[in-house]
Amino acid sequence: MILCAATNCIPIIILNLRSIEYMSEIIQLVYASRATFESPNRAGIDLNVARILMQSRRNNIKLNLGGVLYYGDSCFFQCLEGEKEPLEATFDIIKHDPRHSDIKVLMRSTVPERTFGVWSMKYVPAQADIKRLLQTKGLERFDPYQFDTATIEQILGILTNAADPTKGASHITHNAILHFLETNKIIASLVGLAIIIGLMVLWWL
């Protein structure tokens, strides 16, 4: 009886391990948009940008999405990372958000792991490194609509290493755990197997 139960559970275990393995197949989408609001010339994060950031962090945690947001010269530059279905649904909401206009997908690809894995949405304010990069490209202002693929990748590299002045444990912890499991398939598989074995033991008892 026990052998039969264990045998019947083998396909379930294999299915769960494969599901965990597929977690690493994620989409990275980078888009640009123009803000429909005017930002006051003052230090600190714009109130409208702060609201967008807060909403992104709250919703992305629920959907296991992540990424980074940069705002400069009235333009948004955002990278979204996660599974295809929730990412597409989120991007569709963004396309209908009245705070955005002229939305353009700059880059889209399937990646083996997240670049911003521990962040539900990282925020990077105006960066001197980005200004220097733009100068080398002959660009006087932050205009992502003019960026080629190499420039987009360079900016993503800068944003990866840049600090987030708004960071806090509340929006990092959940995605950090998921990122750890995604990038450590063996450990993730063992965790899944341990859960299944525990359920089997409870069933036998």
What does this structure look like?
The chain is 50% helix and 20% strand. By secondary structure, the protein is α+β, with helices and mostly antiparallel strands. The chain has two domains: 2-21 and 184-204; 25-180, Alpha-Beta Plaits (2-Layer Sandwich), CATH 3.30.70.100. A five-stranded mixed β-sheet has the order 4-1-3-2-5, with helices on both faces. The model is unreliable at 1-22 and 168-174 (pLDDT under 50).
How do the strands and helices of this protein lay out in sequence?
Blueprint: H1 2-22, E1 26-35, H2 47-63, E2 66-72, E3 75-82, H3 84-95, E4 100-111, E5 122-124, H4 128-136, H5 149-161, H6 173-183, H7 185-204
Parallel strand pairs: 2-5
Antiparallel strand pairs: 1-3, 1-4, 2-3
Helix pairs in contact: 1-7
Q: How would you summarize what this structure contains?
A:
This protein is an alpha+beta fold. The protein has helices at about 1-20, 45-65, 85-95, 130-135, 150-160, 175-185, 185-205, and strands spanning about 25-35, 65-70, 75-80, 100-110, 120-125.
The separation of the N and C termini measures 13 Å
Percent range of helical residues: 40-55%
Per DSSP, the total helix count is 7
Q: Report the biggest beta sheet as strand number plus sense, adding barrel if it closes.
A: 5 strands, mixed
What is the number of independent domains? 2
Sheet with most strands: strand arrangement: 4-1-3-2-5
Determine the mean pLDDT.
81
The proportion of residues in beta strands is 15-25%
Assign the CATH class of the largest domain.
Answer: Alpha Beta
Q: What structural class do the secondary elements suggest? A: alpha+beta
The CATH architecture of the largest domain is 2-Layer Sandwich
Rg, Å, rounded? 21 Å
Stretches where pLDDT is under 50 for at least 5 consecutive residues are: 1-22, 168-174
CATH topology-level fold name of the largest domain = Alpha-Beta Plaits
Number of E-state strands: 5
* Helix and strand element order: HEHEEHEEHHHH
Apparent shape: elongated
